[in-house]
């Protein structure tokens, strides 16, 4: 029952995050130079991050997974994946903004800090998802798609001068993601396409 309630509350939080970050500003143009982000964006992400950590902190100790521990079982992995997926979404705009800066353009320090938080959650998701993909379920394709998404974000960050030091092990992360996806790939499936994308990206990065 506790895990069921935790999963329901995490879905509600994720819906709120999507609404605040995307629906609220749909069709609205905010003028800002490329080296920074709107002040309101920092405030919104800070509040959502606070709500995310409040959700995690309030989990009963009997079901609260340790985010710094590897080798989670299915139930713990699902909760951790929800935590890291929400954190990734909250901070992803800052990572994309940092990656879009021109060469030599100095990013706002707050942008970089939030982008690093996104990378933390991407790594966390990649570690947690292995515990959720130990057996077939209706969510396998969703989990695999999210695995591809986080490794692509980690790869994008490796091209940013401000973020590259945080992902010096990006090639190992690509191998880890490819192995996860390959275990569920079969001919002419969408998962096979995802695997091809990750492998192609890795090959492109090998020459750097």
From TrEMBL:
InterPro entries: EcdB-like_regulator. CDD domains: fungal_TF_MHR. It comes from the Eukaryota. This is C6 finger.
């Amino acid at each position: 029952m506790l895990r069921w309630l935790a999963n329901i509350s995490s879905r509600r939080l994720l819906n709120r995050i999507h609404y605040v970050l995307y629906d609220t500003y749909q069709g609205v143009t905010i003028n800002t130079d490329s080296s920074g982000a709107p002040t309101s964006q920092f405030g919104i992400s800070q509040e959502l991050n606070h709500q995310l950590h409040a959700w995690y902190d309030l989990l009963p100790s009997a079901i609260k997974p340790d985010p710094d521990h590897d080798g989670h079982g299915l139930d713990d992995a699902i909760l951790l994946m929800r935590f890291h997926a929400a954190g990734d979404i909250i901070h992803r705009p800052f990572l994309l903004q940092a990656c879009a800066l021109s060469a030599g353009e100095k990013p706002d320090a707050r942008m970089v800090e939030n982008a690093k938080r996104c990378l933390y959650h991407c790594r966390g998701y990649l570690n947690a998802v292995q515990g959720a993909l130990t057996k077939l379920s209706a969510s396998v394709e969703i989990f695999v798609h999210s695995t591809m998404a986080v490794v692509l974000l980690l790869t994008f960050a490796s091209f940013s001068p401000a973020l590259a030091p945080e992902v010096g092990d990006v090639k190992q992360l690509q191998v880890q993601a490819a192995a996860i996806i390959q275990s569920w790939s079969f001919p002419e499936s969408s998962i096979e396409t995802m695997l091809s994308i990750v492998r192609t990206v890795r090959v492109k990065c090998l020459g750097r």
